Amino acid sequence: MKKYWQNFSLEQSLGFILHRTLTAIRAVARYEFQNEASDVTIDQWIILCALWEKEGRSQTELSEKTYKDRATVTRMLDLLEKKAYFSSAIFRGQKDI
């Protein structure tokens, strides 16, 4: 194991390369969102896309589909409803709300 760490290069590690790539993609997306005068974040947009794709998804389904924890999804849905992007009526009658 010691030999591996002697030759380790952070800049060449897959995890670091993926992190840099994701950071660059998010920066471009954030720039595009700002240019469009959008009042939603990238993460909120992902939630909206998941809802548009299949209206009536439960929060648990949204959490699984978007790889976000349920607390984060709940906060985003609250913010998006305040911005009038959807009505919580689509969730009525679901157990996990």
Textual characterization of the structure:
The chain is an all-alpha fold. It folds into two domains: 28 residues; 52 residues, Arc Repressor Mutant, subunit A (Orthogonal Bundle). Helix content is 62%, strand content 0%. The chain contains five helices and no strands. Helix 4 packs across helix 5. The longest helix has 22 residues. The protein is elongated, with a radius of gyration of 18 Å. The model has no long low-confidence stretch (mean pLDDT 86).
By CATH, the architecture of the largest domain is named Orthogonal Bundle
Percent helix range: 55-70%
* CATH class category label of the largest domain: Mainly Alpha
Percent of residues in beta strands? under 5%
Largest sheet: none
Apparent shape: elongated
Cα(first) to Cα(last) distance is: 48 Å
**H/E order of the elements?**
HHHHH
Instruction: Calculate the mean pLDDT score and round it.
Output: 86
* DSSP summary, beta strand count: 0
State the low-pLDDT regions, or none: none
